[in-house]
Design a protein that fits this description.
The protein contains four helices and eight strands. It has 316 residues and is of the alpha+beta class.
């Protein structure tokens, strides 16, 4: 229970307790006033009245002197006077008690009024706090929404960055493999001096131009005679023992024509009317586990050197 209610109950019970005392005081005061009026009404208004009063007093004195009960009457009158004076004193103290009760009640009313004012202020403050809480909650929700959006965007950028990183890694890995892998190529081919009634022999130099070894290299070659723009066909690599070729290492690959050359064919080869074709193909693996194919075609040009007619790599 709040302090304001205690003040209200104190005032209420104080008024209830003071009511009989005030009523008694009021009755005594009223009786004293009535007696005073009666005495005033008995006072003579002129000299004759005064005289009659004096005569009456004289007769009363005489009667009192002769009356054996006069002393008792005086005693009763004295007691009545003392009682009236006592009642007047009590009325005086009852007045001040009533005044004090009134002051206490006024103070209680004032305290109740102040309590109501503070209660109203507290209600206003609570209302303001609720409004501020709602605003703070709204701000928090907006901040949470913005944070969620930012988190999604960050996650999206992170995924994009991860994908870009993976792509960059793949590109770097592919670039590194392209730089480090083995590359087999033909460095040149030459036609051995042709003798009558002997096949033509072509020797080609195959070299690993890469920075890592070429593993499990298998190659086959073939030399044939043909005219310009002839279609030359070659089968798959021969079933030979695979070899490993280190970086910047070379080996010789030889092949002879499929028949013995006569004097007329030798002369036509020297004049450039017919050609000796040298074709080779092979397969090998690099150190990264990928397989590659090499193919090249050379053609004579009237000298002992053969010129490239077509070169193929694993993409063609």
């Amino acid at each position: 229970m709040s302090r304001g209610y205690w003040h209200f109950y104190t005032l209420f019970f104080g008024l209830i307790l003071a009511y009989p005392v005030v009523q008694h005081s009021y009755a005594q005061t009223r009786a004293a006033e009535d007696q005073s009026k009666a005495e005033q009404n008995t006072e003579p208004s002129d000299l004759s009245s005064i005289k009659r009063s004096l005569d009456g007093i004289a007769r009363a004195v005489e009667t009192a002197n002769t009356d054996r009960h006069a002393a008792d009457g005086d005693e009763r009158a004295k007691r009545d006077l003392e009682a009236q004076e006592e009642m007047a004193r009590w009325a005086f103290w009852m007045f001040w008690a009533a005044a004090v009760s009134t002051v206490i009640g006024a103070a209680g009313v004032l305290l109740i009024w102040r309590t109501l004012i503070h209660t109203r202020d507290a209600a206003k403050a609570a209302k303001s706090a609720v409004a501020e809480g709602q605003i703070a909650n709204s701000i928090a929700r907006r901040a949470a929404a913005q944070s969620a959006i930012f988190s999604r965007e960050s996650a999206k950028h992170a995924r994009t960055a991860l994908e870009d990183g993976r792509l960059q890694i793949n590109l770097s890995d592919k670039h590194a493999r392209l730089q480090l892998r083995a590359y087999m190529a033909c460095a040149g081919a030459s036609l051995e001096p042709i003798e009558y009634a002997a096949p033509g022999t072509v020797t080609a130099t195959v070299i690993n131009c890469g920075q890592t070894p070429a593993l499990n290299l298998r190659m086959c070659s073939q030399s044939v005679l043909g005219v310009s723009n002839a279609k030359i066909m070659i089968g798959p690599p021969a079933d030979c023992t695979p070899v490993d070729i280190g970086p910047q290492q070379a080996f010789a690959l030889q092949s002879s024509t499929d028949r013995i050359l006569g004097t007329d064919e030798i002369a036509r080869i020297e004049r450039g009317e017919i050609f000796v074709y040298f074709i080779a193909s092979g397969t090998y693996d690099d150190v990264f586990g990928e397989s590659h194919t090499i193919k090249f075609l050379y053609r004579s040009d009237g000298t002992d050197k053969l010129k490239p007619a077509a070169i193929y790599d694993e993409q063609e």
